[in-house]
Amino acid sequence: MIRPQHIFCEPAFTVLVSESFPDIPIQAFSLDVNSVQDDIAKLDLVEGDTAWLLLSPAESGHENAPVKDHMNLCRENPLIGPARGSGPRFPDMSSVYTDSDGVIAVLGEDEDLVNFKEPWVGVCGGIWEAIVLRQQGINCKAWVVSDLEKWVKELPAFD
Q1: Residue pLDDT, tens place only, 13-29
Q2: Which domains, ranges and CATH numbers included, belong to the chain?
Q3: Nearest to 125 by CA among 62, 78, 61, 68
Q4: CB within 8 A of 23, min separation 6: which ones?
Q5: How far apart are CA 85 and CA 151, in angstroms?
Q6: What does each C-alpha distance from 27 to 30, 86, 90, 114 come to in angstroms?
Q7: CA 15 to CA 30: how far, in whole Å?
Q8: What confidence category does residue 73 fall into, taking pLDDT thresholds of 50, 70 and 90?
């Protein structure tokens, strides 16, 4: 398992994640799409670093699962507006996450999701961070985490 330079998570996860990874900086997901770029710009991340995102499912009853992709259906995007940061204006979003197996994290709603054939899970946040991190060249590994304690126990050791 590659050691992250930073972990982003739901605000409710920050205490347990900090206890489980005391030497890794922890950042709660932003609640405002307009502050995401500024929040991430303040961190000590450089291109090529790895960040973990721990996404909380919008509904209960889901198992912990790696994320292979996301859909931002909330009609908000942190890259809209004046160009900020050092990354490309229109980053390649085809490979945001390091896992090729897993679920698709969905932020927002769309009536056509009932016809979507791949496994997906609605999430409460974290997609905006993934967009900005990818724009800045940061590698993202993400999970949908329903049971944080179980997720921590099942993680393999760092390389």
Answers
A1: 999 999 999 999 999 99
A2: 6-154 (3.40.50.1580)
A3: 78
A4: none
A5: 33
A6: 9, 20, 25, 33
A7: 16
A8: very high
